[in-house]
Amino acid sequence: MGYAERNTWAQVISSIIAAAVYAVVLIPRLRTQTAHEVQWVQPMLWTIVASIVASIVLSIGIGIVAGMINPDTEHRADLRDQEIDRFGNRIGQAFLIAGSLGALTLTMVRADWFWIGNTLFAGFILFTVVGGIARLIAYRRGFQ
Prior knowledge:
It is a single chain. This protein is mainly α. Helix content is 82%, strand content 0%. 20% of the residues are buried.
């Protein structure tokens, strides 16, 4: 497993865990409060920061273990890695655009900020997860 693929695994894993933790924090609040009353900004910011930090730490940890197992592994992205990255970004961008359009629509109908912010957040999470999964499939099966 190359350097770029390990980073993709770290990003996908940390994003899935972060989204799950955010949902676990937010859903009980929505059961007892209206969307307008729910305190969502701070949990979202913590989730974003924690996801970034976890991705970095996980990537470093996987890199250390991989380096001990196979010290000859290349640590630079080659042309194939760059093409796979572009492929994953193209797949993921559809979800980023959908989240942005959803948030724009919610803004036009004057929805609560809770729904607008969480729609954008969902678009970012789906961009990372779906785009990352597309990259991982491309690493394993190729892409065309």
